[in-house]
Every structure is written in structure tokens, then in C-alpha cells.
Specification:
The chain has 224 residues and is of the alpha/beta class. It has seven helices and ten strands. Bound molecules: adenosine-5'-triphosphate (ATP) and magnesium ion (MG).
């Protein structure tokens, strides 16, 4: 599913955010990406959907070589990837329906075709009755569940979730994690950046730790 060899990312500022990353992530994994603030978690996640490209080394995601891929190939990669951003980013002026529908709207789906699909993913996260609500009328946990529904809309084989439980209380965070685990059981590979290590006790997964842009080795990190 994901292959990295000697992966390096240097931002235009000169900051080396990642270096010497070697790792393989098999299909169907549930991976927790951990590490202190600034360790490079979001940088690695952005690279995995082609939002930024590696400076050197190799990153292959779902068969796409991210460094050398054409714009067209990156667009295709994104269509096969569900993304939950750090700080959820719902559009406040749009209904829940429109927010969830967005990834397929940009692919040209019309409302008639979208409605049953959006209803289906919203019912998966238990929010089908909020179809015509606006984001600001939902709690933080509900908004995060909407973000999950949106990420699963096009039935991606990979979901990248950057701090999906940030700012949520423990019970709500567990509920959000239950949903991601349920998707994983259905075969979706999940990679989740998190600071909430205590969630691992109730929701075990493979742990990949970054420190100052490098993998912390010594555990089962190289082959997860
Ligand atoms: N666009 C950018 N330009 C320059 N430097 C950046 C950019 N984005 C991130 N960085 C730097 O790269 C390093 C890694 O940042 P990144 O956002 O990947 O960390 P993180 O592990 O996600 O942290 P957090 O837990 O706070 O979200 C940091 O030192 C950060 O300042
Ligand atoms: Mg981050």
C-alpha cells in the first residue's frame, strides 16, 4: 500500500522536516503516527496524498510514485484517498450534505446521484438526520464525524486522519476512533496522527514514532 525509502523533505525555508525514512505499510493496517509537535507527522501525511512532494528518496502510495507523478496522477491518487485534516475544515456556509458531497461534486456528480451516497455515509457515522443542518449547529465530535463521512464518501482504500480526535473529550474521541476502526475492519487502511496515546489501550494499532523528522527505531517500526 505504502512504501518509503530514504525519504527526505526539505521545505523552501531550508527546514528539513523528514529525513532517512524507510518504512512499508501493508494494506489493511491501522497505523498511529506519533511524535512531539513539529516531529513531521503532518508533513508525512501531506506527502502521502501528494499535497507536497518529497525532496529526495522514494514514496509510493497505492502504486503512485509521489515525487515523479504527473498532476493527473496526483489527482487520481487524491480521489482514492480519504483525508481528514488537522482541525476538520468544514465550510460553515454550506449544509452538512454539501460539505460531505464535496469530494464527489468536484468529480462531476450531480445532486440526485449524490444524495443516496451521502445519506449512506452519514448514517454510518450516525448523523443522517443532520443532512440539512449547518456545521456550526453541530458539536465538535459531530463535526469530526461529518469529516469522517466526507473522507469515506468515495470508498477510498486509504484514509489519512491528522489529529482527528484533537480537541475532543475522551468519550467523544473513542467514538470517533470506533468509527475509524470499523472502517479498518471493512478493509480500509488507516493512518492517523495523534497525541492521544491513551487511546491505544482501548484501540490497539501499529505505532510509528517520529522524532525531529526521523523514525524512532527499536520497536517494530521498519516493517509495520
Ligand atoms: N510549509 C512549511 N514551510 C516550512 N516549514 C514547515 C512547513 N510546514 C511545516 N514546517 C516545519 O516542519 C516541521 C514539521 O512540521 P509538521 O507540521 O509536519 O509537524 P507535526 O508533527 O505535524 O506537528 P504537530 O503535532 O504540531 O501538528 C516543523 O518544524 C515545522 O515548523
Ligand atoms: Mg501536525
Amino acid at each position: 500500500m505504502i512504501h518509503m525509502s530514504n525519504l527526505m523533505m526539505r521545505y523552501k525555508t531550508g527546514k528539513v522536516a523528514l529525513s532517512g525514512i524507510n518504512m512499508d505499510i501493508p494494506q489493511g493496517s491501522f497505523v498511529y503516527l506519533i511524535g512531539e509537535s513539529g516531529a513531521g507527522k503532518s508533513t508525512l501525511m501531506k506527502m502521502m496524498y501528494g499535497g507536497i512532494r518529497p525532496t529526495s528518496g522514494q514514496l509510493e502510495v497505492q502504486g503512485t510514485k509521489v515525487r515523479d507523478a504527473s498532476e493527473h496522477q496526483i489527482r487520481e491518487l487524491r480521489q482514492r484517498t480519504g483525508i481528514i485534516f488537522q482541525g476538520n475544515r468544514l465550510l460553515n456556509s454550506r449544509t452538512i450534505f454539501e460539505n460531505v458531497a464535496l469530494p464527489l461534486r468536484v468529480q462531476g456528480w450531480d445532486a440526485e446521484r449524490l444524495l443516496p451516497r451521502v445519506k449512506k455515509v452519514l448514517s454510518f457515522v450516525g448523523l443522517e438526520d443532520r443532512l440539512w443542518s449547518y456545521p456550526e449547529t453541530l458539536s465538535g465530535g459531530e463535526q469530526q464525524r461529518v469529516a469522517i463521512a466526507r473522507a469515506m464518501l468515495s470508498n477510498p482504500s486509504l484514509i489519512l486522519a491528522d489529529e482527528p480526535t484533537g480537541n475532543l473529550d475522551d468519550d467523544t474521541a473513542r467514538h470517533v476512533l470506533d468509527l475509524l476502526m470499523a472502517l479498518n475492519k471493512l478493509g480500509t487502511t488507516i493512518i492517523m496522527a495523534t497525541h492521544d496515546l491513551h487511546l491505544l489501550t482501548s484501540h490497539p494499532g501499529l505505532v510509528v514514532q517520529l522524532r525531529q523528522g526521523a523514525l524512532v527505531t527499536g520497536q517494530q517500526h521498519e516493517k509495520v
